[in-house]
Design goal:
This protein is mainly α. The chain is about 80% helix and about 0% strand. The chain starts with a helix and ends with a helix.
Length: about 240
């Protein structure tokens, strides 16, 4: 229900997709486990606390929605402090959460509070699509490290393909196009639901929409972008080794 649940941060979302597609081992490594933490903190905790506060402690819908947004907000701030660097996406998510909460409290409309959760989805989705149009796909920053894997040869192969292969650049654009389109679609679905469905229903259904959207984006971006790019990288590396 928090907008951070929708994104899990763009970088975390992209890296989760890239890891799922490119890893060959069937078992998850210890390094991949922390990727589930944002999902638990940003989805399970807010939704669970909403029902606990509203049905268990008898708080109003507005109060329950407000207090259940505290943990994701604290996590976002803590991430910024811990990394000790400006994170534009995290700052944007936090800002929209705060503005949306303030507007909801002023308007006294819990549906507005639910609808505003889609704000970052739409902003990021539009930003990603615009970045593709400008020839600088935004989501590449999260995908590249997991395909390059910190290897200098793979990084050099990436640079060669990025400079000389239209197929590689097309796959790169496709990755961002998929995520941008999915995020915008999720936004529309959640806004419609916020104003047409019962609030209690939309609290949990919004999470279902989010998870379904992420799975769809994982599958599509993996099939049409990550896998082809990984194969092109391997082919480029093999060619470089034989030259």
């Amino acid at each position: 229900m928090s907008i951070t649940a929708t994104e899990i941060s763009a970088e975390e979302t992209v890296t989760a997709a890239a890891t799922a597609v490119t890893t060959a081992a069937p078992a998850r490594t210890a390094g991949s486990r922390p990727s589930f933490l944002p999902l638990i903190v940003d989805v399970a905790v807010p939704v669970g606390s909403y029902y606990l506060l509203k049905n268990g402690l008898g708080m109003s819908t507005m109060a329950a929605l407000g207090w259940s947004s505290v943990v994701p907000a604290v996590r976002t701030v803590w991430g910024m402090v811990k990394e000790r660097k400006a994170n534009a996406l995290a700052a944007l998510i936090l800002l929209v959460n705060m503005v949306g909460l303030a507007l909801s409290l002023v308007a006294g409309d819990p549906r507005l509070m639910l609808a505003k959760d889609s704000g970052v989805s739409s902003v990021i989705g539009i930003g990603v699509l615009v970045s593709v149009r400008l020839g600088r796909p935004m989501m590449t920053q999260g995908m590249k490290p997991f395909l390059v894997k910190g290897d200098a040869a793979r990084a050099a192969a990436w640079d060669r393909l990025s400079a000389g292969s239209e197929a590689f650049r097309k796959a790169e654009r496709t990755f961002s196009l998929v995520w941008g389109t999915v995020l915008l679609s999720e936004c529309v679905a959640k806004v419609v639901g916020a104003y047409t469905l019962p609030i209690d229903t939309m609290v949990w259904l919004g999470t279902v929409v989010t998870v379904a959207s992420m799975v769809l984006a994982f599958l599509l971006s993996g099939r049409f972008a990550v896998v082809p790019m990984a194969k092109m990288l391997e082919h480029e590396l093999a060619g470089g080794a034989h030259s």
